[in-house]
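Q: I have two molecules that I believe assemble together. Could you output structure tokens for the complex as a whole instead of separate predictions?
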Amino acid sequence: MTALLETKNLEVFYGDFQAVFGVDFHVNEGETVAIIGANGAGKSSFLKALSGLVKSRPDGILLDGKPVGGRPAFDMVKSGIALVPEGRRLFPSMSVADNLLMGENGKSGDRGWNYETICDLFPILRERADQLAPTLSGGQQQMVAIGRALISNPRVLLCDEISLGLSPAAVKDVYAAISEIKKRGTTIVIVEQDLNAALSAADRIYCFLEGKVSLAGRADEFDRSQILAAYFGS
Amino acid sequence: MEHLNTIVQGILLGGLYALYAAGLSLIFGVMRLINLAHGDLIVLAAFVLLAMVTALGLPLPIALLILLPFAFALGWALQRYLLNRTLGDDILLPLLVTFGLQILIQNGLLVAFSADSRKLSLGAIETQSVNILGLSIGVVPLITFAVAVIVLGALSYIFYGTGLGRRLRATSDSTEVVQLMGVNPRVVFAIAMGISFVVLTIAAFFMGIRSNFDPSVGPARLLYAFEAVVIGGLGSLWGTLAGGVILGVAQAIGARINPEWQILAGHLVFLVFIIFRPRGLFPKQ
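A: Yes, here they are, computed for all two components at once.
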């Protein structure tokens, strides 16, 4: 079976600095995969490469077995790879509705996600549609960020540190939505420092350490000490 | 009544300055680029209109309508193939390139049209006036102001009422994040420059009717545009109209006191804003 999204020996550079070293990774259709690791492990750089924000080799990233690496981000999203960026990165001068509708520019098909179904998933956003995005709470802003990526009807939804800076209640709400999105068949890749949140959502995990994969497999096949050893490198 | 007349004439002159400034404001708002060639591009467009009228014998308004789509295409191409290459972390590079463009346009116009002063003619309407509440108001200044309001209204509609406007505003917020939304910021920049060229061509039409022009007057138009943008608030469209009106009224009052003070009065008001309200009346948040 061909993986939906795959990387082969993927390397990520920022000028002379190398952040990711030869990572082999795959996610199958309908699967949720979590990438865990400490700060500076290369997780976000890996997602940036997958989304096209950072350049990579053409054959380093494969979608349906076809090379898509090196394409700019505005092409990647139209191929079906959408990113929820770290820190949410909403458009501050725009309303909630305009932020969501901006996502439609990257539409890659019709998998049932539109403004109405996004608002059904996050009803609070319908109430706050005309408010400027920065006036929302952190959890609500994260809902906008997820909705904005989801409205492009991606084949793979990449989520970068979606629990960062949120209250425990907001993290619970956000992960409940991730679970619902998964149920509707969207393939999801989550980068997460919060081990509990990641393990609860994922079918499989990859642990990154110093830009390399230190552990990979089914989320339930490792005990906590193995994961912590791979996480901290001890 | 004379004082009121002075203020009304100043307000109407502000419409012309708002037209000078609208394109500059749009470009700064979307891509933080200060186009130093903006004034010379207005003069270039006026000369092209003059050439269309004299060489092809077209009526001036028809020449304007024909020129507008070409102006959009030229602005689009200039941004796509030249200015986009200069955008990045170094803000000096686009300034230098547009400064070079300014010199190219001025010298090109000198070669093609000489240093003689020219004017566009709209016929008898130029000298007509209407009487409103005892004030005699020129038809052309009135039309200029009305067109400025219509242009700014249209730009405002594009910005806040269309999908293109959403892309323009989002690109202004973050050129990186819009890419995650499937938008190529360089294409958005090119469209913005195309719109700016359409607006500056309309400004050229009214400048050419209302005053003489020669290849050297571009920098002064840039200065008026720049002052109107700063007074109104960087990147604010309706602020641009307010800035143009304040500048126009200041110049009209200055001229009323002493004709030699007309330009100086405008610059002094600009200076007051720079000192006490450097972000202008309606700054972009």
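A: One point stands out. DSSP finds eleven helices and two strands in chain B.
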